[in-house]
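Lab notebook, page 48
Experiment: co-folding of the full assembly
Goal: obtain a model of how the components sit together before planning crosslinking
Operator: M.T.
Materials (sequences as entered):
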Amino acid sequence: MQRDSVHGIWSSQFAFILAATGSAVGLGNIWKFPYITGEYGGGAFVLVYLLFVLILGIPVMMAEILLGRRGRRSPINTMRMLAREERATRLWCFPGYAGVLAGFLILSYYSVVAGEVIAYVFRAAAGVFENQTPDGVRSILYSFQGNAENLLGWHTIFVVMTMLVVARGVRSGLEKAVRFLMPLLVILLLMLVFYGMTSSGFDRAVRFLFQPDFNKLFYRANESGSVVFTLEGVWVALGHAFFTLSLGMGAIMVYGAYLHRDASIGRAALTVALADTSVGLLAGLAIFPIVFSNNMAPNAGPGLIFETLPVVFGAIPGGALVGTMFFALLLFAAWTSAISLIEPAVAWLVESRRWSRARAATVLGMLVWMLGIASIFSATGVTLGDIATRIVSLFVVVEHPLRGGIYDSNWFMLIDTLTTRILLPLGGLTVVLFVGWRMRIMAVRDEAGFASRRLFRLWYLTLRYLTPLAVLAVFIVGIIEGFLR
Ligand code: PHE
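Observation: model returned without errors.
Model output:
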């Protein structure tokens, strides 16, 4: 079956790999992975996450590329067309729609964090961190995050940057930029890791990251302070495997739609997964030595990279330059990911509504920008309880602000949980069920184009059984646990 993409085609398989790596490597690796690893106790969390990358990340990525390439359209229309081809129900379009929603929600907070990264480019350049103590660096972060208008300004800049590229079409410029800037980011990370090796905290950092202690993953303090058994960390690791590889929402699928017929899906997926995982682990190895050398808390939360790395940039000779470059490259990595978060929605509007790319990007950009404001208030410390209190107090007099339980979390945490832990795994699950159980095996084999029968069987069986069972098991246990609590 030969179809053409109306949005153009990558110039080579290598260009696709670069673009997919650009999508996968982003804030998820350098900002998120270290802080969730810190929150869920280190080694055991890392191990479970790596396992999920292997048994579900790679198979799902291959399935997404395969579907995208066969359908050659936006994820919604690809799923619709392939479902029709297999005489299956239109319900299979679910990952398409859920993906558009998830990408949109993720981008709304992603761009707030990326905005903070832009601010840190300038701060590092201005030498703000020179000779700062860890406490000094932290108070700089807190006063920065306390100022909503500031955050809004940077968030606005990032949304505009993203939508400008999206409006022009994903391919122009992206390939070239990723080819040079991504290796540079890895070099800088390596430099930071080498610096970490000379510090007193390096051994502890390595043990923290690679010596699994399952008690730290499974036992956590609850609100009343008592320690309880929970599988929350496993669920978070599952969600992160999807998030960091850009899976479950159509980003890789839509990039697959622009891929040549004769490219090798297996090799592409393996390369992207390997690059992505390496960057995450390197980021951990760069950040945790700083944490332990300075007696900081590994579970500082989403501010972790902004609290730790500047300490080093302030201490080493030429730190202002290194720091500026680091944040600039991180910004770039975030940019190439953000583009792919919104591409499924843009491609769909272009196909189905016949909008121009510019129009689709403008409208979506405005929506993302507005929703981002809610995440800005999360950074400044507004909780769901505060919001609920405000709303309730419009109608009745409220004596005490609403506190405790879900009220203490904030909008950012809510959409992060909804997207990463629920929408992405569900989207990925639907994709593998479709490829594994609904598509004719002939069609799958034809599109996958495996040279080796053995490898095809290995992938196909993993996709049919292991991957869906793993996702379902984590979901079911997580939901039961939620009810029991
Ligand atoms: N993978 C990106 C990161 O790690 C985030 C992302 C998620 C991008 C989903 C696209 C789709 O930062």
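Interpretation: The first helix runs from residue 13 to 24.
Next step: discuss with group before ordering constructs.
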